[in-house]
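Marked as duplicate of an earlier ticket. Keeping the data here for the record.
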Amino acid sequence: MMSDQRRRIKIKLSKVTLAPIDKMKITVLVEDSKSMDKPELMAKHGLSFLLETKIMGMNSKLLMDVGPEPNIALKNARCMGLDIKDIDGIFITHGHYDHVGAILKVLEYVNRPVPVVAHPEIFNPKFTYKPKLTSIGFGYGSSDVQTRGGILLLVRNSFEITRGVMTSGEIPRKTVFEEIKGLWTIKNYCFIEDSMVDEQSLFINIKNKGLVILIGCGHLGIVNIIKHAQDLTGIKKVHAIIGGMHLGKSDRKKIMVTVKELSRINFDSIYPCHCTSTEAINQFLNSFEERCVPIRTGSILEF
């Protein structure tokens, strides 16, 4: 078993060539905070990004996560004049309800076969204590997704989900301070701590700018994920870090260590949201100033 694991990590960490894309637009369909200038949009604890990319004249449209409840992403998309019926695929970062809860409704709306990319353990039971034992998992089975047109691509390794947009594959743990606490799962009929092996991110190479790293929740650590992106692609320059950074329940010490480690990375901008926490965002603003731009429901980023 150990040799299989080592072999899998070796394959996963082999450098790949990530084609640079010409343009990318990211629209935040769902996030915890309401838009200041778009009050008609619904905010909810969760995340959903619409990615529109262009490379060599080819356009692509992907959903990264779908938010927690059936109608929020769809309603917000309509309010912003967007239609997601023509998406080329859906990428699920991990199996927590606030990122996958709307999957069946979204597939019903799209109403045609569409690839759904995720890790094989995406459907594993997931729990936390709030303070009672609480299910925070997918809530559906693979058959539910498939019967609504989802073509499941359950993979552990990294690959290009569309030209110029790469999945992280399984993310090895390198940093020691970005530990995972308070999450549980069931494996082999045992109730154990969840190491979040199913969590993945997206990596994009923007022409003449560098990497854009899209993170769902960052349970595996924002610094850890960035290092994996650099190792996997061989690209050291990071243009933008976008998404949830899982510092909501972190103490000040961990936040400050995160800031210190981020300061050692050559990045242009950081766009925190979702589970990052107000305290962490304030520390990012203090340390990175204009390079830190918090985003919320309705935010639009163009590269």
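See parent ticket for discussion. The longest strand covers residues 23-30.
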